[in-house]
Design a protein that fits this description.
20 helices; about 80% helix
Length: about 675
């Protein structure tokens, strides 16, 4: 158990790195007063939203804490029949929820300071802007990893129980889902309102200061793509560690075997490798999109190689089965292949997006049809890759049909390997919204067009890296969810699931249905919130005289627009988030269904949720970059009919890639975590 202290040390190093990077960004002086003032407006709106969101979520967390104490830890009504006599699970849940909230806060705190400083740096050179935006994105990257690794390591050292640390994962998942949905609804309500009224109806440029929704849109990038993404990947990272440790305990019947320690060590090595990788990210002035992509790839690939070398040395030194290193390698390869496939289908450097952009010449409907086709095609490579990865990881780890537990451990370890360098991967992901905001600030402050060209280049890079990050996120979600499903099976004593059994088949159908219901709820939520924003922007253009014409001294009421997005997001996050928690509980306690049907429900949700998430993410990413490809001067460029069609296509794709698609990853893992935590209750109710 003492080796888990290495995880604690690595976590502290990761948090210190995040702190140093934060101070480095904070020390950059913003000289331009307009840039500074706009940055302060975004900061105020973002932090006000986060405060209100966490106030609402704190009440939910307290309610769940009480439920866990009464029904799980103390078993007040004697349903389980094995009261723990303590509230360790409930405490673990609270710490996980707090960790998720902290991860989101740190991401937000860095982003709302780094956006204006990226604008300032971009006035000097493209490389300066890249370095500041990347350093800003690295803060949530290292903070997420540090908090996640610290929480799992310390809780396991203290409680020495894989079951108890599942509570940490439950807390992280529940808060992460609400944060992801709320942030996604907020950002897309503002974005859709800004685009449809400002750009399409009023003919204003993107991020025009006359548009009342512009500041709300900038705030949305922070709360959705930074705070929401940080909370999302925090629970992915913690969930992969928890599942691997739980399966190791099940396989070895020991709480301190080498298999239990291995995921902690691999993650610890990944922290150091990620720190080294950050020094490799740089570019030159006038760099092409390919040059910019490779500046990130060098950092990510360098960190991955260093992480694999470190893991190989440890496995060899401990005399463990060397096939475990190949499992970790395949986990990294899975992420790279799916990420590269995502890049191919969403970057305007490649044929799918260029073809999609060409369809704009015949109208918005053609763009959307092409985008749906691209999104559907894009599921093929990830599906085949993950299927192959599951079989390979299962076999290499020594799993068999008769004794699958080590094979399932291998699948979980592959997920740990993929996320071991999450610190640098998330840095490239969080880089996107910071760059997007930097461009918006440059436009609103009226800076030299050359500055906007540089921030647009960084923004396009951010769109691609964000899409790639989402590909890696959904891949890790599948592997982690499978491992959590296996963990639930050990808790519920399930050896196999017979699909010829009607209740098992019904459970699988319900599981396949849930991601579609969830995606529908989140898409409708964006539609309702965006509708309110559209009406508000129209009202201001109609009632504030001189606003649309840009008369001197006439300014939009940005506070009202921010308020509309905030209220809409907080209201709309409740139903989807509640569904994710109540659905597995309902299936688990219904007499006809019960624990076995719940297992098949989880399996069905993983299959449909994975494919649906890939489709939604890639359709939206392709639509966004098709619009940007047109804005580069292709097919008539800005202001043309083709551009208007591209904007509409992008508007349709926005909620798919930034709200519904990413939230599905958390849905899968949250339902599995709920099943694990409440598994003993379901068994007790079933006798």
């Amino acid at each position: 158990m003492s080796e888990i202290l290495y995880g604690v040390i690595a976590a502290v190093v990761s948090l210190l790195t995040a702190g140093i990077l934060f101070l480095r960004v904070q020390r950059i002086n913003v000289v331009n007063e307009d840039v500074k003032n706009i940055g302060d407006l975004i900061k105020e709106g973002a932090m006000a939203f986060l405060k209100r969101e966490y106030t609402v979520l704190s009440m939910f967390v307290i309610a769940v804490f009480v439920i866990l104490v009464v029904f799980i830890d103390l078993d007040v009504f004697g349903i389980i029949g094995t009261s723990q006599g303590n509230i360790n699970m409930s405490i673990s849940y609270l710490i996980g929820a707090a960790g998720s909230a902290l991860a989101g806060y740190f991401g937000m705190a860095a982003a709302v300071r780094g956006n204006s400083r990226t604008t300032e740096a971009s006035q000097k050179s493209l490389n300066n802007g890249l370095r500041v935006a990347f350093s800003t994105g690295a803060v949530p990257g290292f903070a997420v990893v540090g908090i996640g690794l610290l929480g799992v390591s310390v809780l396991y050292l203290v409680f020495e129980s894989a079951t108890v640390i599942a509570g940490f994962g439950f807390g992280a998942s529940s808060v992460g889902l609400f944060a992801r949905v709320a942030g996604g609804v907020y950002t897309k309500a503002a974005d859709v309102g800004a685009d449809l009224v400002g750009k399409v109806e009023a003919g204003l440029p993107e991020d025009d200061p006359r548009n009342p929704a512009t500041i709300a849109d900038n705030v949305g990038d922070m709360v959705g793509d930074t705070a929401g993404m940080s909370a999302d990947l925090f629970e992915s990272y913690a969930g992969s560690l928890i599942a691997t440790i739980a399966l190791a305990v099940a396989a070895t019947k020991s709480i301190s075997s080498d298999l239990v320690i291995l995921p902690i060590i691999v993650s610890s090595i990944g922290v150091i490798a990620s720190i080294i990788g950050t020094f490799l990210v740089r570019t030159k002035e006038g760099a092409s999109m390919n040059n910019l992509l490779w500046s990130f790839r060098i950092g990510i690939f360098g960190a991955t190689i260093l992480g694999l070398i470190g893991a190989g040395v440890y496995i060899s030194a401990k005399g463990m089965d060397f096939n475990l290193l190949w499992v970790i390698l395949f986990g990294n390869l899975l992420g790279i292949i799916v990420g590269t496939a995502t890049e191919y289908f969403t970057s305007y450097e490649y044929k799918p997006v260029k073809w999609m952009a060409s369809q704009s010449e015949t109208g918005a409907a053609s763009v959307i049809i092409a985008g749906i086709a691209v999104g559907l095609y894009s599921t093929v490579i990830p599906a085949i890759t993950i299927a192959a990865g599951i079989l390979i990881s299962f076999t290499l780890a020594g799993g068999t049909v008769d004794d699958p537990i080590m094979g399932l451990y291998g699948i979980a370890l592959a997920s740990v390997g993929m996320l071991s360098t999450l610190a640098i991967t998330l840095s490239t992901d969080s880089f996107g919204p910071v760059s997007d905001n930097a461009g918006g600030i440059a436009e609103q402050a009226g800076l030299d067009p050359e500055v906007r060209e540089r921030t647009d280049a960084l923004d396009s890079l951010g769109n691609t890296t964000a899409a790639t990050g989402k590909g890696i996120s959904v891949t890790s979600a599948v592997l982690t969810s499978l491992a959590l499903l296996a963990t639930y099976a050990t808790v519920a004593g399930i050896d196999s699931l017979n699909l010829l059994n009607p209740k098992i088949l019904v459970g699988a159908i319900i599981g396949g249905l849930l991601p579609f219901i969830f995606a529908g709820l989140t898409m409708a939520a964006v539609g309702r919130a965006a509708g309110a924003m559209i009406e508000e922007v129209r009202r201001q253009f109609r009632e504030i005289k001189g606003l649309k014409e840009g008369k001197k001294g006439v300014k939009p009421d940005v506070a009202k627009a921010v308020e509309i997005s905030t209220n809409g997001a907080l209201k709309e996050m409740i139903v989807p988030g509640t569904l994710a928690i109540l659905a597995p509980i309902a299936v688990g306690i219904i007499p006809f269904l019960g624990p076995e049907a719940l297992g098949s429900m989880l399996a069905g949700s993983i299959i449909s949720g994975f494919l649906l998430a890939i489709f939604l993410n890639n359709f939206g990413g392709a639509a966004d970059n098709a619009k940007k490809y047109i804005e580069l001067g292709n097919h008539g460029g800005k202001g043309s009919d083709a551009h208007e069609a591209g904007v509409i296509g992008d508007t349709v794709g926005d909620p798919t890639k930034d709200t519904s698609g990413p939230a599905l990853n958390i849905l899968l893992k949250l339902m599995a975590m709920v099943s694990i935590v409440f598994g003993p209750l379901f068994l007790g109710l079933g006798g």
